[in-house]
Amino acid sequence: MDQQQTKTRGVADLVFLIDVSGSMAPIIDALKRNIELFIDSLSAGEGNNVSPVRDWRAKAVGYRDFDEDPQPFVDNPFVRDVAALKAQLTGLVAEGGGDEPESLLDALFKIANMGQMERGAQSDDPSMWRYRSDAARVVIVFTDASFKETMSIPEARGGGVADVTNAMVNNRIILSLFAPDMPGYDQLSQIDKSEWEAISYPGLNPQEALAKFTQDQANFRNTLRQLAASVSKSAETVAL
């Protein structure tokens, strides 16, 4: 192994990036009810050959339509306590958003470029990623909508999927998508090490499908356990 490479050894920074337009209340409620299960699974390293994530930080971030909504991006600091994370989820209110599509690309670009702490920093900055070789970085997206193909935020105006892909790769971010079976998400899922669970049920529109996905408590809890195992695997991998 290259001496420049370092194992993160069960250290991870997590961002729950949630579409908080009007139809998303069911997923926010389901996450609030089950976030302890996710963190417990993450910390215990449940599953075959899954190591525990002993040092985690997480935050919940909401996004809507950056062109239409007065509050299109709801940010929070990284926290290390499950009660604080649950409080952040409680603070996310599903409203607005207007008609589809929403501004997922803008939100991903902002998160990817939030900056990082110095390598081996002794003090914690909850507004930034830890240094890329000090912690795995994972962004977990929940949405029931399509996304705008062009960004409108000033720092990336006119950019698209390719720009977001570059930002995610350059900042060593792993993407996990829970999103409709719609064009565009297949492109995002091709970002290195990313995963996409297409939420789709016969005869249901994307909003109805996500509601059904969250209403099946046993299935949703199992999904969160699998997600925790995936994050744990990411936290074992080599970060440059």
Describe the structure.
The chain is an alpha/beta fold. The chain has a single domain (25-233), classed as Rossmann fold. 34% of the residues lie in helices and 18% in strands. The protein contains seven helices and eight strands. The protein has helices at residues 25-44, 82-90, 104-112, 161-170, 185-189, 206-215, 217-234; strands at residues 6-7, 11-19, 55-63, 73-74, 136-142, 173-180, 195-199, 238-239. The strands form two sheets. Strands 4-3-2-5-6-7 form a six-stranded mixed beta sheet, sandwiched between helices. The protein is globular and about 45 Å long. The termini are close together. The relative contact order is 0.20.
